[in-house]
Write a structure and sequence with these properties.
By secondary structure, this protein is α/β, with parallel strands linked by helices. The protein has a single domain, classed as Rossmann fold (3-Layer(aba) Sandwich), CATH 3.40.50. Helix content is 37%, strand content 14%. The chain has six helices and six strands; from the N terminus they run βαβαβαβαβαβα. A six-stranded parallel beta sheet has the order 1-6-5-2-3-4, with helices on both faces. The two termini are 22 Å apart. The structure holds magnesium ion. Magnesium ion (MG) binds next to loops.
């Protein structure tokens, strides 16, 4: 049941995932969700941990891109401070804009991975675009109001897959 919600891997937080994981899985471009994956939705500026993470990825030859459903006004400021590209109003769970982004870069789905904290947006969109996805836990407690309804569906599905052993730790992939 709920097969389309099974992520490629799971991590407590994006910051736990070592670059070697992306390298051994041949990731060229990393799509990163912003709100509650990289930071609180309230955070206007990246903290040092995010700056360091992004810089390490770049050093390893992996291109990080923020893929957010939030508006350009919110996403651009944050992404610009990190010096990375972004896609705002990404319309996850719909895979169309992700697919376009992959094609625009001359990549195939095998070159790309997404990291995000939500089943209802990140996992579904990645699956729809045929890219691998790492599901994380929320980085802070509070969500933007638009996310509350997604969490109502997310919680039992996450619980189900955790119980079934379908949330495989990234270290084992
Ligand atoms: Mg999120």
């Amino acid at each position: 049941m709920f097969k389309r919600f099974i992520p490629f891997a799971h991590s407590q937080s994006i910051y736990e995932i070592e670059p070697e994981f992306y390298i051994r899985n041949h990731v060229k471009v990393l799509f990163m969700d912003l709100d509650n994956t990289l930071d609180s939705y309230k955070a206007r500026e990246p903290q040092q941990r995010t700056i360091d993470y992004v810089n390490t990825l770049k050093e390893k030859g992996i291109t990080p891109v923020i893929i957010s459903n939030n508006k350009a006004k919110r996403v651009s400021g944050y992404a610009n401070l990190l010096g990375i590209e972004f896609l705002s109003s990404a319309m996850k769970p719909f895979p169309k804009r992700l697919r376009n982004e992959i094609a625009r870069r001359g990549l195939t789905p095998e070159d790309v991975m997404l990291v995000g904290d939500q089943m209802m947006t990140d996992v579904l969109a990645a699956k729809g675009a045929k890219i691998r996805v790492v599901l994380t836990e929320k980085i802070v407690k509070e969500d933007q109001w638009t996310t509350h309804i997604n969490r109502i569906f997310d919680r039992p599905i996450r619980k189900h897959h955790r119980k079934k052993g379908n949330l495989v730790d990234w270290r084992n992939k």
